[in-house]
Automatic annotation (TrEMBL):
InterPro entries: CheW, CheW-like_dom_sf, CheW-lke_dom. It comes from the Bacteria. This is Purine-binding chemotaxis protein CheW. Residues 2-138 form the CheW-like domain. Pfam families: CheW (PF01584). It comes from Paenibacillus hunanensis.
């Protein structure tokens, strides 16, 4: 069975997420900070009258603690009103499930359990949205 993914970058590392999990992609907005929020929580943003928590994947994955950049994008999830802050979008990938393997990065396997290899040899972990949402779920979501 084929999987359609979009590849994006966080701290120069490629990651992927299934197209079926994406509502839309927008240029990033600055969130309104919340007191006592986790460091990876960049605040709340309003999109068409709805509030979305803005999750900074750089901080959540522990790959960089840089703040938002002008070139950042937001991936709005379809299954919950959550926006994922990423550095940039790359391309699409269509892979066969037989190409999937366990993420070699042990520390991030809970949120990124599976991965695939690009033609240039780079490993691309795939975001498990259900686990990500469970991990980031708090009283404001």
């Amino acid at each position: 069975m084929k999987m359609e993914l979009i590849v994006f970058y966080v701290a120069k590392q490629p990651y992927a997420i299934s197209f079926s999990e994406i509502e839309e992609i927008q240029t990033a907005k600055k969130g309104t900070p919340l007191p006592f929020a986790d460091e990876w929580h960049e605040g709340l943003i309003t999109i068409r009258g709805s509030l979305y928590p803005l999750v900074n994947l750089r901080k959540l994955l522990g790959v960089s603690f840089d703040g938002p950049q002008e070139s950042d994008k937001m991936i709005l999830l379809s299954r919950a009103r959550v926006a994922l802050l990423v550095d940039e979008l790359d391309n699409t990938a269509i892979i066969d499930e037989s190409e999937l393997r366990e993420n070699p990065e042990v520390n991030s396997r809970d949120i990124l359990p599976r991965a695939f290899e690009l033609s240039d040899g780079r490993i691309v972990p795939i975001v498990n949205v259900e686990t990500l949402l469970a991990y980031t779920r708090t009283s404001y979501v």
